[in-house]
Amino acid sequence: MNQKWGRENRIDIAKRTLIQSVDSLRGVPNLEIALRVYGHQSPITATYQDCEDTKLEAPFASNNHDFIINKIKSIRAKGTTPIARSLEASASDFPDKNSRNIIILITDGIEACDDEPCVIADKLRAKGISISPFVIGLGLDMSYLNHFDCYGNYKAAEDAEAFQTVLKNVINVALVNTTVQINLNTIHKTPLETDVTMFLYEAGTKNLLYTFTHTLNEKGLPDTLIIDPNKQYDLIVNTLPMRSKMGIKLKKYTHNTIEVDTPQGYIEVEHRTKPKYSVVETRVIEHGKSTTLNAQKIGTTQKYIVGKYDVEIFTLPRRYATVDVEQSATTKVYVDAPGTLNLNALTPVTGQIFERMSDGTIQWVCNLREDVTSDRWDLQPGNYLLVYRKLKLKSASYTQEREFTIFSNKSISINL
Fold first, then answer.
1. DSSP labels for 282-331?
2. CATH code for position 310
3. Residue 305 needs a FRET pair 20 to 30 A away by CA distance; which of 133, 319, 341, 389 works?
4. What is the CATH number of the domain that holds 121?
């Protein structure tokens, strides 16, 4: 700990950062803290290291922040690194074994005295003591990381700034105990919607801080999250369409619930009869809007926010549907299987295909290709009018018409 981090000794940076962290814990309800230190009483020599050099410098108590801060100021790094014995001794430091007991281990070295500190860690867990070590990784051979994994969650800090950030995060998780659940509510205001990606941005910015895939726990309730309570957030829920909640402030030291209305149902697009060919997509739009919300293939089911949608089906000719998505229900959009028109001509022709609508109107479908003498069109069932002229004949009087009907999964051929 006496090695340099920049211009300062590592021990001095660690002490200053730890003092700031202890000071930040003032006012946290139902929290008692203690300080155990090792390697600070007996100097290590070339022939001797004191593996019993571990001491509870400040017992657990309420409002003992000043006492602990003064102890931290007096610490000097002298001796060895008896991690296992310090952990074992810490088991008797806790006054109440039924409380939520947490150890945060700060070290810049690996175990120097005992071969199996993991055995001690397992014993502590069996007593209900949770170990959440914070390991200062600067100067450590990274191959030693597996040693720290057996204690708990290893956190590396390569410099003073990283140490401050990671220690702050560890304390927020282990001690401050600010938790969050995000309720994705149905139309009945029950938090049963789930399995969607959520983004938490720093409020008012594009700085993405957290990404979560929402889930329900084994009790069917939204999962509990731990995020930094010192920031404000903008929440984006990536439903179709997206839902958001801006300027979220968390209340420290308690469980926060964020409510977002995301009632959802399904749109399923399928063929009325199985087609022999043709793969078709649809364009789903919020009713009354023009922006494409989703391109959904026929034969698939997709979840959408409850509401009204326009569906444009990319058949030839286009088909359209307006549907209502209801809570947890599946709304089906049926598409007729197409039939096939085969056109053959002795010489190239120019012309267009029209559909005769049930109200008597005639609507354009497509133009004929002028560079071929045979072509194929997959068309929706219906009545059609073909208007054409041989390309080489330069008089409109040579225009001809052909009426034809298309049936699902049937083919017809027209020779021009």
1. EEEEETT--SEEEEEETTEEEEEESEEEEEEE-SSS-EEEEEEE-TT-EE
2. 2.60.40.1120
3. 319
4. 3.40.50.410
